[in-house]
Amino acid sequence: MLEHYRAPYTATVVRRLEDAGAIVIGKATMDEFAQGTTGENSPFPIPHNPYGIDRVAGGSSSGSAVAVASGMVPVAL
Predict the structure, then answer these.
(1) 3-state class of 64 per DSSP?
(2) Contacts for 65-72: CB closer than 8 Å, 24+ residues apart
(3) Of 17, 27, 41, 76, which sits most exposed with the smallest number of CB within 10 A?
(4) Is there a contact between 47 and 66 (Cβ–Cβ < 8 Å)?
(5) What is the DSSP string of 18-33?
């Protein structure tokens, strides 16, 4: 439903982080509409737990969890 949707604004927290000098490197996948407990309900590829393919990556913000756990970024929202 939202495959080609692009938000017309930037979230306040992201704008404030950028104003403070943070560099946003991308957007992470999450369960669709943030409804889920495993991170496997996304229209995008399922993020894999960097500590074991047999484990789920996390809850609704699994993409952010994988980015931090794998060392790609120090923090994620």
Answers:
(1) helix
(2) 65/39, 66/28, 67/28
(3) 27
(4) yes
(5) HHTT---------SGG
Give the model confidence (pLDDT) of 29-41 as tens digits.
Answer: 777 766 777 777 7
What is the Cα–Cα distance from 38 to 40, expressed in whole angstroms? Answer: 5
Cβ atoms of 49 and 40 within 8 Å: the answer is no
The owner of tokens 């692009």 is 6
pTM of the model: 0.73
End-to-end CA distance of the chain: 23
Asked whether 39 and 45 are in contact (CB, 8 A), the reply is no
62, 30 Cβ separation under 8 angstroms: yes
What pLDDT sits at residue 18?
95
Please report, for residues 16, 29, 30, 33, 46, the alpha-carbon distance to residue 43 in angstroms, rounded to integers and kept in the order given: 29, 9, 9, 11, 8
